[in-house]
Each structure stands twice: as C-alpha cells, then as structure tokens.
Design a protein that fits this description.
alpha+beta, 4-stranded antiparallel beta sheet, 3 helices, 39% helix
C-alpha cells in the first residue's frame, strides 16, 4: 500500500470514528440522513463539508455498499437530497479506503 493510500486509510478511519459516534454534525444531520434511508452504523463516510447555512454535503458508502453523494439540510428534510454515483468514481484513494473499511467492518458482523 502506498503512502497516499495509507494516509487516506487513516483519514477515513478517523472520520468514521466521529461519524459512527454521532459527534461529527448536529442531531438534525443524523436524523435527516437516517430518514433518507441511510443506516449510519452500517455506512462509511468518505468526506463531508459544510455548505450554506445548516447544510452539509459529502459522499458515503451506504449499508448496501452503494456510493452516494448527499446534500443534507439539518433543519428541513424536504431540502435534503441523496444521489447514487457511478462506479468509476470509486477509484480515488479515499474511496478505496472507504471500501476497505466497509469490508473489514462487515466481515466482523
């Protein structure tokens, strides 16, 4: 594994420690992402960034191992969106690290 991939692996694990402990964003973020059908504990967050207002954008692997781009409004569910992303986007170091983490977590259960 190259240095770039090792850094991505460390970053993904740290990010998901916060994500899975519900410490990464507001309660509204978690409530709305779950109402859109994403199981937080069985998903792997790839990246997240604040957008305008109380909104977050990012990408994750959902519980079905599907790559999803999201735009979550923490205040208004009807303003939140998720979009499935084509497979060719899975080749970045962060996406590879997310896939490895997903596989390691799901091989335990």
């Amino acid at each position: 594994m190259g240095i770039r991939q090792q850094k991505a692996d460390i970053e993904i694990r740290a990010l998901n420690n916060l994500f899975h402990s519900y410490k990464l964003a507001s309660t509204g973020f978690y409530e709305n992402i779950e109402l859109l059908g994403i199981n937080v504990q069985d998903s792997i967050l790839i990246w997240i960034a604040p957008d305008s207002g109380n909104t977050f954008i990012g990408e994750l692997l959902n519980q079905e191992k599907k790559l999803i781009r999201f735009d979550i409004d923490c205040d208004e569910l009807f303003l939140s969106e998720i979009e499935f992303i084509e497979a060719q986007k899975k080749n970045s170091p962060l996406n590879k690290a997310a896939l490895m983490l997903f596989d390691s977590i799901n091989s335990i259960t």
